[in-house]
Amino acid sequence: MIRLENICIAYHGRKILDNLNLTIEAGEFISVCGQTGCGKSTMLRLILGAERPTSGRVLIEGRELPRPDRHRGYVPQKYSLFPDRTVIDNITFGPEMEEFGILGRLTPAFHRKRREFREQAHAFLRQMGLHEADAHKYPDQLSGGMQQRVAIAQALIMRPKILLMDEAFSALDPATRLDMQRLVRKLWAETGTTILFVTHNVAEAVYLGTRVIGLGKARVLFDVSMPDSARDQDRERFEKLVEEASLHGAGQTTGGERLEFEVPEFST
């Protein structure tokens, strides 16, 4: 689904990503960890098509796609909602603009299609655990967790093949964050969407991801995979493994090698 080949990106002479190579299969849930400034968000923007590498290639299903499209959804840390639009208008904005643009809204076909989009939006609201009454509220009338649910619905209504989530839960309180983690895992299991989820939280990375990737010193430091059955049984041990991989990898980056950690001791 996604291939990063020899990616290098630099700002004002400072390398953010250097010789980054990564392959992601369709349907994987990739958690991306790393310290601030290591290039996690930059990598998401490259995959989104919002940024171009200094050198190297980003391939989506074997093709270079130089700009964002409906097949790559994006959920940022700060809720990407229009403050002057209701919840339902925020969710339907993407498909309406894609199909009709600005001038197309003046046609009779727009009003027919708009009803269809709103029916879809209401279905997504229910899927996100929100109520029908929430559809006509404005973002400032919602809690942080509710706003993030709307932002995810806003991305999913476009039915993307890839969903990119950049520290999407970091501003939430612990209880709401746990609810959102469960929701995203459930949606991923139901839709099979390929997800890349950036987080500083190792426990969150382990709980969510089918693979945990660590970035640092502009390269991949570690890449750990484990079956769901083993993760559920041995979550604490796996978290410890990822933390150890982080420390070990951070001490081995001067040569630029990529470290891969296997976990044969975990039962399947």
Supply database-style keywords.
disordered C terminus; globular; alpha/beta; 268 residues; three-stranded antiparallel beta sheet; seven-stranded mixed beta sheet; 8 helices
Outline the fold blueprint.
Blueprint: E1 2-11, E2 14-24, E3 29-33, H1 40-48, E4 55-60, E5 72-75, H2 87-100, H3 108-127, H4 144-156, E6 162-166, H5 174-191, E7 194-198, H6 202-208, E8 211-216, E9 219-225, H7 228-233, H8 235-250, E10 259-261
Parallel strand pairs: 3-7, 3-8, 5-6, 6-7, 9-10
Antiparallel strand pairs: 1-2, 1-4, 8-9
Helix pairs in contact: 2-3, 2-4, 6-8
Write a compact overview of the structure shown.
With 268 residues, this protein is of the alpha/beta class. It has helices spanning 40-48, 87-100, 108-127, 144-156, 174-191, 202-208, 228-233, 235-250, and strands at residues 2-11, 14-24, 29-33, 55-60, 72-75, 162-166, 194-198, 211-216, 219-225, 259-261.
Give your account of this protein's structure.
- This protein has 268 residues and is α/β, with parallel strands linked by helices.
- Helix content is 38%, strand content 23%.
- The protein has eight helices and ten strands.
- The protein has helices at residues 40-48, 87-100, 108-127, 144-156, 174-191, 202-208, 228-233, 235-250, and strands at 2-11, 14-24, 29-33, 55-60, 72-75, 162-166, 194-198, 211-216, 219-225, 259-261.
- The protein is globular and about 55 Å long.
